[in-house]
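Hey,

Quick one before I head out. I ran the complex with guanosine-5'-triphosphate overnight. Inputs first:
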Amino acid sequence: MSRHRIVRGMDYNDEYDGYDDVYGHSVDDDCVSPTDQQWLYDRARGQQSMSAFIKKNKNIEEEAEDDDEDDDDEAYQKARRDSENFQMPELDDIAQAKLSSCVDEVRSVVGDAVSERRIVETSMRFDYDIQKILDDILNEETNKKEKEKRPQKLKLNATTPATKSSTTPKPTPTKITLSAVKDARRGFDIASPKAPSSPNVSGRNTPVEGGDEAGRGSTTIFKVSKDQAQRNAQQLYEQERATQKSHIHMIVIGHVDAGKSTLMGHLLYDTGNVSQRVMHKHEQESKKLGKQSFMYAWVLDETGEERARGITMDVGQSRIETKTKIVTLLDAPGHKDFIPNMISGATQADVALLVVDATRGEFESGFELGGQTREHAILVRSLGVNQLGVVINKLDTVGWSKERFQEIVHKLKSFLKQAGFKESDVSFTPCSGLTGENLTKAAQEPALKAWYEGPNLLEVIEHFKVPERAIDRPLRMSVSDIYKGTGSGFCISGRIETGALCVNDKVLVGASREQAQVKSLSMDELTQTSVFAGDQVSVTLAGIDVNNITVGCIICDPQMPIPVTTRFQCRIIVFNVKVPITMGYPVLLHHQSLIEPAVVCKLTASIHKSTGEVVKKKPRCLGQNSCALVEVETSRPICIERYSDFKELGRIMLRVAGVTIAAGMVTKIR
Ligand SMILES: Nc1nc2c(ncn2[C@@H]2O[C@H](COP(=O)(O)OP(=O)(O)OP(=O)(O)O)[C@@H](O)[C@H]2O)c(=O)[nH]1
């Protein structure tokens, strides 16, 4: 009896409507089928693979673009640093050039502690005289008086005051050195956060009329403790974690029924992470329901509905310890209805295990006939996962056939290369999650032992490299869950993408820019005093209404806030579109755990996949397998980063009617 009776009972013609022309076509040994050409990147046709696309985008900032875009970029730089939707004044070309070089020069001295608006205003006021501008900015008292006297010449969006500084010693501009300025900045009397007039006033759940009134454009730099402001996160990390094992998050992906939960459940049991008593209970209970073959899957499929329906619906989480690592396992749902959950899980992952069912006909339906093997692999790669362990599972059903193993490896190798995985970062392991063959011990089954001498699954996991963590960057944490804690305040959970977070730290929450205080931190239910980039954590927050925080929002450093915007430019690769993308195309934007309705509001240019050169400015539409610069607009403000600034927060995915139509990287924030 199939575990997925209900799913299998579905009308797949309806279910996979829309996938026909993208997913489910074979990559043959030597050639790609004609329909695959629509979305796979065929080098033979002079087009670039996704790997090249992704590689290319790593240097996106350095790419030359057309003149219009250069102008836009100036605007972007300002908007990004100001962390608000600050509108640049309209100036003629010469004034614009003067202003730009002035802002850059001032910025190189004062760093990010001074708002963009402040620099622009001061630059214009002092007719681009650098010395006067620096003098003014670094002398708060003078600046304050000047500001009071002078009428507002620029039409600005936000109503909040610009950054204040009061106690900065007035340095002689000619003597300013970077270190001196840094010291001076530390002495700024940073304005305290303005208390919201009502808890809901600027909440993400309560969009406020007039956009910029919503507090997202605030230029206030919040006051934080000296300890928080001067913390050396890298040093703290080394002190606290030097003796601990490194930690990685591994997502387990693959087509529905490939055996992911069984494999992980068995692995957890074999590594001693599930007691015999619990396993016995699962065995007895699953037997009663005539579903004994799911007993290992039940370790991770914990909800009644998942067990009754026989499918994983949300990402199950558990952890194992290897000799050198702590590995958090994220068991993703395979069915296409739950891809949003799978995406949310994949955003937390460092590495992935792709499970395929070796059973004849089953591998083919997962890989070639509209299955999720392809989509999952492409999604995790687009989300930045570059190490992949492929598990050729259920090999017991084909008598441990070497030929079947090789056939599958061959087909997958070719596809994964085109999806952007480096050959050296991909491994293939024959296993049976049900029998436990080759999971934690070398192959025992004679038919497998006869031809396989490679690593078992645990060794594969052990050999994953730990990605570098951006610990010394400003704090960014994406919220994937919100729940009521045991004490006062409430809890959020999610991944620290960059930086560090300590108990008592002040943080800014999402697009509302409201401030909250960290009351407690925990990781795997253990209390912590500090957590770091790469950690999956629970945080108890105080000082903010629970209604003002939503899944998908970003928690950030009050002194280096994340940009908030409703419009950004991104470079996308189009996978599958029934109707070509035109201006006004409605999509669901996936960014970390955020799912937000959005519109493709501008088709800036079609670009060449290999060279990144503009092929056509302002194309009228984008078809399958095209690469383009587009602008996306959301109805509500969201927190987002440029890929070149924070690659962790600069990736997006566009989906329409349950189908992933494009993946991309944010290149500019408006
Ligand atoms: N013969 C055999 N059957 C297996 C193996 N692994 C899993 N199965 C069976 O395959 C079915 C599906 O297994 P699951 O572990 O639930 O599959 P899954 O990939 O987690 O399913 P979703 O998460 O819902 O996509 C169950 O009936 C399992 O007993 C295996 O190695 N060999």
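The chain is about 30% helix and 25% strand.

Talk tomorrow,
K.
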